[in-house]
C-alpha cells in the first residue's frame, strides 16, 4: 500500500497560502528600462535600492494572470549592459518573494589595472514593494573541492573560481596597448562608486579595500518563503554544495534565514537507500531548485533529487530520491520538470519522452507523483500519460503547433493542469506558443502566443524575442496578491504598464 506524500499535513494552518493570493508565471528574461522610450513601469510593486558600489537602481513587476507571463523590469542607468555578460539574473521565486542577482563592474582599489565583478543578491517582495540586499556569503571552499577542475556532463572543463586574493580578469575590455577601455557604463559606475566611497569615508568607515566577493553559485541556490505564526513572512535562502571525499558524497548547506543577520554553513550527510543511489550522487549536476512546503529540492534531470527537509528549522536533513528511468535524450532539462503543486505541498515529475524511432516526431507525456511506501521510503508513481497523437487530436481554442512540448510546468493549485512551451523554427525569430493541458480531463485549456515571430523584432519586445530565439528558459512560479494583477483587457496589448 502506498499514498501520495502531501507535506501540507505537517504545516500549521496559519502557514498555508492565503486565499487572496494567485499564482503567476514569471519570465526569467530581465526587461531593462533605463529611460528614453522604454521606461520603468511605476506601479505598486516598484522598489529601489543600491549595489555594493553605491549605484542606485529600481525594479518593478508587470503581473499577468496565466497563460500570459509576468515580467521583471529593471532600471539601472549606467549599469553594465548585455555586451559585458548578463548583469541581472532572476535566481528563484517562491510565494511573494523573488530572489535576483546584480553583477557590477568596478576597478580594483588594491590593483587598479584590473576590473572586479562583485555580485549582490536581493530579496524582493512585490506585494509590499520591499527590497533587501542580502549580506555577502564568504564561505571557504571545502578542501576536497578547492583548486580542482571539475568536468561537466558534456566533457568540458570548467575553470575554478579565483581565490579572494586574486582579481577577476574575465571579460575585461583592453586596448591594443593593454590598458582597460572604459565604456560609458563603466565610467558611470565608477563615478557612483567614488561618491559612495566619499560618503562612507565621511562617516569614518574603512573603505580602502576591495568589495568582498560572494562565494555563492547562482545555480545551486534555492528560496523558501512562508507565512510565520506571527503573521509576517519568514524566508531562508539556501545553497547546496556537494563534497566528494574518498568516493563518498556529502553536502554543505549555506543558509541565510530571515531571523538571522549572517550565513550559517552546515556540513550534512546525504541519506541514500542503496549503493546504486550513493554512486549516482558522484555525478549529480544541479539543474533546478524547487521549493516544496518546508523543504527544498535540488534536481538533476538525468539522475534524481536531493531533498532538504526542515530547512526553516535548525536541524535540516538531506536524502536522495532517484527519478524514474527513461532512455536519455540529451535534452532532459528541456523535456522534464519537477514541480510542487496543490499549493506547493505535493511533488510531481513530468517527463516528455521523445520517440526513438528514426524519422519519428512523436512523443509521450508522462506524469508521476511522489508517494510514500509501506517501508517508509519515497518513490515515484506513474499517474497519467498522453501521446502526441492524442494531444494533437484534442479540440483546442487555437492552432496547436506540431512540435515537441518543452519546459513542462505544473499549475500551482491544480495538479492536473500543465503548461508547455512549443517553439516553431522560422527564418529569423522562432514563434513560441504556450499550451495548457488538463491531463485528467484530456482537454486543451488554452493556446497562447508568447512570441509571434519575426514581427516581434519591430516592436517594443524585440529584446526578449531575440534572446528567446533558440534559447528558451523555464518560467518561475510565484504567488502575488490578486489586486496587483493587470486587468485582463490589457493582456493582449502587453504594454509596459500596470
From TrEMBL:
Q: Which residues form the DUF1618 domain?
A: 298-419
The ranges of region (Disordered) come to 143-176
Q: Which Pfam families match?
A: DUF1618
Compositionally biased, Acidic residues: which spans? 163-176
Q: Which InterPro entries match?
A: DUF1618 (IPR011676)
Q: What is this protein called?
A: DUF1618 domain-containing protein
Amino acid at each position: 500500500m502506498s499514498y501520495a506524500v502531501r507535506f501540507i499535513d505537517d504545516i500549521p494552518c496559519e502557514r498555508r497560502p492565503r486565499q487572496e493570493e494567485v499564482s503567476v508565471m514569471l519570465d526569467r528574461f530581465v526587461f531593462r528600462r533605463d529611460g528614453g522610450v522604454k521606461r520603468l513601469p511605476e506601479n505598486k510593486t516598484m522598489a529601489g535600492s543600491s549595489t555594493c558600489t553605491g549605484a542606485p537602481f529600481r525594479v518593478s513587476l508587470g503581473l499577468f494572470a496565466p497563460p500570459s507571463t509576468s515580467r521583471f523590469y529593471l532600471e539601472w542607468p549606467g549599469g553594465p549592459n548585455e555586451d559585458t555578460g548578463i548583469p541581472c539574473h532572476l535566481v528563484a521565486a517562491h510565494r511573494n518573494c523573488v530572489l535576483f542577482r546584480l553583477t557590477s563592474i568596478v576597478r580594483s582599489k588594491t590593483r587598479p589595472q584590473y576590473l572586479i565583478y562583485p555580485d549582490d543578491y536581493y530579496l524582493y517582495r512585490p506585494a509590499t514593494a520591499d527590497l533587501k540586499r542580502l549580506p555577502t556569503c564568504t564561505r571557504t571552499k571545502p578542501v576536497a573541492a578547492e583548486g580542482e577542475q571539475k568536468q561537466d556532463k558534456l566533457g568540458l572543463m570548467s575553470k575554478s573560481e579565483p581565490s579572494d586574493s586574486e582579481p577577476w580578469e574575465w571579460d575585461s575590455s583592453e586596448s591594443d596597448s593593454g590598458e582597460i577601455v572604459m565604456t560609458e557604463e563603466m565610467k558611470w559606475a565608477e563615478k557612483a562608486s567614488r561618491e559612495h566611497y566619499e560618503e562612507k569615508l565621511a562617516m569614518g568607515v574603512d573603505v580602502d579595500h576591495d568589495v568582498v566577493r560572494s562565494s555563492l553559485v547562482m545555480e545551486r541556490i534555492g528560496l523558501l518563503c512562508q507565512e510565520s505564526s506571527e503573521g509576517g513572512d519568514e524566508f531562508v535562502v539556501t545553497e547546496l554544495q556537494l563534497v566528494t571525499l574518498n568516493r563518498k558524497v556529502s553536502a554543505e548547506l549555506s543558509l541565510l534565514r530571515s531571523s538571522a543577520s549572517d550565513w550559517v554553513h552546515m556540513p550534512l550527510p546525504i541519506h541514500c537507500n542503496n549503493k546504486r543511489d550513493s554512486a549516482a550522487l558522484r555525478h549529480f549536476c544541479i539543474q533546478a531548485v524547487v521549493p516544496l512546503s518546508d523543504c527544498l529540492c535540488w534536481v538533476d534531470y538525468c539522475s534524481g533529487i536531493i531533498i532538504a527537509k526542515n530547512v526553516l528549522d535548525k536541524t535540516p536533513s538531506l536524502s536522495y530520491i532517484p527519478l524514474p528511468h527513461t532512455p536519455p535524450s540529451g535534452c532532459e532539462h528541456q523535456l522534464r520538470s519537477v514541480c510542487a503543486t496543490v499549493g506547493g505541498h505535493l511533488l510531481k515529475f513530468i517527463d516528455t519522452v521523445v520517440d526513438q524511432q528514426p524519422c519519428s516526431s512523436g512523443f509521450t507525456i508522462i506524469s508521476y507523483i511522489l508517494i510514500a511506501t509501506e517501508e517508509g521510503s519515497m518513490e515515484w508513481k506513474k499517474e497519467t500519460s498522453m501521446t502526441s497523437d492524442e494531444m494533437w487530436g484534442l479540440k483546442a481554442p487555437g492552432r496547436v503547433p506540431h512540435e515537441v512540448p518543452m519546459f513542462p510546468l505544473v499549475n500551482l493549485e491544480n495538479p492536473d493542469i500543465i503548461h508547455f512551451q512549443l517553439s516553431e523554427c522560422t527564418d529569423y525569430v522562432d514563434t513560441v506558443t504556450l499550451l495548457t493541458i488538463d491531463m485528467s480531463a484530456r482537454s486543451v485549456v488554452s493556446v497562447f502566443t508568447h512570441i509571434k515571430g519575426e514581427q516581434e523584432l519591430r516592436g517594443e519586445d524585440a529584446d526578449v524575442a531575440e534572446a528567446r530565439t533558440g534559447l528558451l528558459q523555464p518560467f518561475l512560479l510565484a504567488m502575488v496578491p490578486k489586486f496587483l494583477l493587470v486587468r485582463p483587457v490589457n493582456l493582449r496589448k502587453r504594454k509596459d504598464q500596470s
